[in-house]
Predict the structure.
Amino acid sequence: MAIIKTLGPSSTDSFCAAEHWLRNNKDLSGDAQIKLYPNMESVFADIQTGDLIVMPAGYTNRNNPDFSGWVDYHYYYSDILDVIDVFSLDTMEMIVVENTDYKLDRAIVQSSTVQLLKRNGIECKHIDYSPSKSYGLSLFDEMSYRYVICSSSDYEKNRSEDRKKSDRIIERVNIHMIWVVYKAARLKNYPAESGAD
């Protein structure tokens, strides 16, 4: 059975991209399983020979200085991973939201989306980075952050009608993303100090 590993939860664009790729590769569709991880670091820490990894070229993690983006993973693991496909797919609609009744004058965003704050002229002194947009939305709600960037479908489903009353939708956007599909062709033990684990 083929294992396709990517970023979760199931409301992420990565999961949608993995499902899209699987539907378009019918030779695998009956014999494949998508396995979700809380962050890409966990995906790469769990590589087994034959695994498939679906990763957006736009992936960034500003909390990790060693593996801050897709290019870091691409170069570091190039000796064990083969690129087997590249495709493009729109992300789900994202929204930039301001909570006008905030308690925490900070933004919570997935690292890759931070430029959407900047292009909307949002000068936020403190930005916290979440491993996914859906987790960021839950923190936005729980801790009453001022700004969040999340999927509009998650927002509509998970934000209470009462809380939506104090929210201002600043922008709605879909990003045309490039996705890379890797296959783990071989395994290698990497130095522990590399930050790969």
Observations:
- The two ends are 25 Å apart (CA to CA).
- The mean pLDDT is 92.
- The CA atoms of residues 91 and 196 lie 27 Å apart.
